[in-house]
User: Fold this.
Amino acid sequence: MVKLRLKRCGRKQRAVYRIVAIDVRSRREGRDLSKVGFYDPITNQTFLNLPAILDFLKKGAQPTRTVHDISKKAGIFTEFKS
Assistant:
């Protein structure tokens, strides 16, 4: 099973996260299938590759709670349902 989850990057006390598609059995910093976005919680910036995310969701990937919330703010699920 594939999940869309956050992968921590950046330095100490200045974390930024990549949104990646990754196998559920992999650890947080493990090898990812694809990088589909970027999230900076300090400046609250997000970059999402919408076609890639929609493709993984159509194939059955499950987003984690945090990725789901970030995606919902960006309006991905309105495009996914239509």
User: Anything to note?
Assistant: The radius of gyration is 12 Å. The chain has a mean pLDDT of 89.
